[in-house]
Write a structure and sequence with these properties.
The chain is α+β, with helices and mostly antiparallel strands. It is built from eight helices and seven strands. It is about 40% helix and about 15% strand. The chain has a four-stranded mixed sheet. A three-stranded antiparallel sheet has the order 6-5-7. Strand 3 and strand 4 form a beta hairpin. The protein starts with a strand and ends with a helix. The model has no long low-confidence stretch (mean pLDDT about 90).
Length: about 230
C-alpha cells in the first residue's frame, strides 16, 4: 500500500501488487522520498500501480538520520494538510523543490522554515505578520506577540491586554526573518544567512506551534528530530 502525491491528481492511495517480491521491477522505484513516473489504473476502490520508473531518487535524503528526519517532517506536514484527489500543482512544486534542496545539502533550517511558511500560505492559513490581528495597526519595529488562535502578530498593547491569553512573545528579529521568508522566493530567502541560534529556536517554535494549532493534532517527526540532534 502506498500514499502518493501527484501533480495531476493530488494525494492518492494506491496498491503495488507484487512489489515485495525479490525480482519485482517496481520495488526499487517505490521507495520513500522518491519522485517517480507511474502508470496507474483505477481499481474498484483504490488505484493500482502497473508500472513505475524513478525520476529522481534523492539518494542523499537516506544517508543519515537527520536527512531522513527532515524529509519525513516535510512529508508528514503534506500528508496532514491534504485530502485525497485534491489537485494543487503549486503544492506539488513546493514539495519537489523542498526535497531537492534538502538532498543538495542546502541549509536545513532555511529550507524547512521556508517550506512551512509557504505551505501555510498555499493551504489558506497564511499568518498575518504586518498588521496586528487585534487592532489592525501596522506593526512597529519592536518585540511583539504571536497568536495561534487569531492567526498572526499582536502588537504589545493587544498582547498585554489579554486579547489572546495564549499569545507568545516574539522578538522583532524573529518576526523580520519570518516576513522575509513569507514575501520572498527561495533565491531571495537564501540571503538570510548566519541566523542566530536563539532566533532559529524561536522561529521554529512559533511556526510548529501554529501548525499544530491549525492541524488540531501533534506532529510525530519533531520529537524524532530533537532526539537525533541530541
Amino acid at each position: 500500500m502506498l500514499t502518493l502525491y501527484t501533480r495531476e491528481q493530488g494525494k492518492l492511495r494506491a496498491v503495488a501488487k507484487g512489489a515485495r517480491r525479490l525480482r519485482s521491477r517496481k520495488a526499487g522505484h517505490l521507495q520513500p522520498f522518491t519522485r517517480v513516473a507511474l502508470l496507474l489504473a483505477r481499481g474498484h476502490d483504490i488505484w493500482i500501480v502497473n508500472q513505475a520508473e524513478t525520476v529522481d531518487a534523492y539518494l542523499p535524503l537516506r544517508e543519515n538520520l537527520l536527512c531522513v528526519g527532515y524529509a519525513s517532517y516535510v512529508i508528514e506536514l503534506l500528508d496532514r494538510f491534504t485530502y485525497e484527489e485534491e489537485q494543487m500543482t503549486a503544492l506539488y512544486t513546493l514539495l519537489v523543490d523542498t526535497l531537492e534542496r534538502l538532498s543538495q545539502g542546502e541549509d536545513f533550517f532555511l529550507v524547512v522554515r521556508y517550506y512551512e511558511i509557504h505551505l501555510l500560505n498555499l493551504m489558506g492559513f497564511r499568518p498575518e505578520l504586518v498588521h496586528c490581528v487585534g487592532c489592525q495597526t501596522l506593526i512597529k519595529p519592536e518585540a511583539q506577540y504571536f497568536s495561534n488562535s487569531m492567526g498572526g502578530i499582536l502588537c504589545p498593547r493587544c498582547g498585554k491586554t489579554g486579547v489572546d491569553s495564549g499569545a507568545q512573545p516574539v522578538a522583532m528579529d524573529t518576526l523580520r526573518y519570518m516576513r522575509h521568508f513569507q514575501r520572498s522566493n527561495f533565491s531571495e530567502a537564501q540571503r538570510a544567512r548566519n541566523i542566530q541560534p536563539a532566533i532559529q529556536t524561536e522561529m521554529e517554535a512559533i511556526l510548529q506551534g501554529y501548525l499544530i494549532y491549525v492541524l488540531e493534532r501533534n506532529l510525530k517527526t519533531p520529537a524524532f528530530l530533537r532526539a537525533v540532534k541530541g
